[in-house]
Design goal:
CATH class of the largest domain: Alpha Beta
Number of helices: 10
Shape: globular
Structural class: alpha/beta
Number of strands: 9
CATH architecture of the largest domain: Alpha-Beta Complex
Low-confidence stretches: 239-246
Largest sheet: 9 strands, mixed
Radius of gyration: 17 Å
Mean pLDDT: 90
Strand content: 15-25%
CATH superfamily of the largest domain: Spore Coat Polysaccharide Biosynthesis Protein SpsA, Chain A
Number of domains: 2
Distance between the termini: 48 Å
Order of helices and strands: EHEHEHEEHEEHEHHEHHH
């Protein structure tokens, strides 16, 4: 059975990268998908690029941050399988058929994940990240980096069960989402590279490392992290190492 994929892309002034994102979704050898782009009011070449692709569903309007933009996309989505892909990241070729196969072969599976490759602005490979099996205990008490967002796919009904993204978070809404999902079900792992994530100095995360640390601290505490846990120690350390991120 060919499950329908809904890929959501939040966008703001990423015209230099977004074509790669769009083309990577097209380059899957898989016909049953929709690509929804939620643009926050780009003033660069983004909108002209979007107009070139007739298959896209897209809107351009002010939003209240990336989580709000992605939730808008989820609200528009009609697929069985959901994911989001940031406008500077891109998928590996021909991974949708394997993801579709995995969901069909494991009918109780509600989400899955694979590996991620970090690349430079110019797509030079920096490092390959082989994702480790996620444990909710490790996620809450040890590290927020067990799952990599670009290489996760989940069923629409699971997203509805957990209440979508927490829009009060600006940087670690994916971490919060994965904890909520892990509290309900265990994902399946595909030992293949699923996506490529660009790393450069002006990414949202790089510009806000200290704010990210505080959000990790608050989110992990919400789910039961103790003051002596490693994740809190690392968050506090990051805050003081990057004080100018505020």
């Amino acid at each position: 059975m060919s499950l329908k994929f809904s890929i959501i892309t939040p966008s703001l002034n990423q015209g230099r990268f977004i074509r790669d994102t769009i083309e990577s979704v097209l380059d899957q050898g898989y016909a049953n998908f929709e690509h929804i782009i939620i643009d926050g009011g780009s003033t660069d070449e983004t909108i002209n690029i979007l107009k070139e692709y007739r298959h896209l569903k897209w809107i351009c309007e002010k939003d209240c941050g990336p989580a709000n933009a992605i939730n808008k996309g989820f609200g528009m989505a009609t697929g069985d399988i959901h994911s989001w892909l940031n406008s500077d990241d891109y998928y590996a070729k021909n991974i949708f058929p394997e993801i579709n196969y995995t969901f069909n072969e494991n009918r109780l599976c509600e989400y899955l994940y694979g590996n991620l490759t970090f690349v430079s602005e110019t797509k030079h490979v920096l490092t390959n990240d082989k994702t480790h099996p996620p444990s909710i205990e490790l996620f809450i008490h040890e590290t927020a980096d067990l799952l990599r967002q670009p290489c996760t796919f989940f069923k629409k009904n699971l997203l509805e069960k957990v209440g979508f993204l927490d829009e009060s978070l600006n940087l670690v809404f994916d971490y919060d989402l994965f904890i909520k999902m892990l509290m309900i079900t265990k994902p399946i792992y595909i030992d293949k590279n699923i996506a490529f994530q660009r790393m450069y100095d002006t990414t949202l995360t790089k510009r806000n490392l200290s704010k990210q640390a505080i959000e990790i601290y608050k989110t992990s505490r919400k789910y039961g992290a103790k003051i002596y846990d490693r994740i809190l120690y690392r968050s506090i350390l990051k805050k003081f190492l990057f004080p100018n991120s505020f």
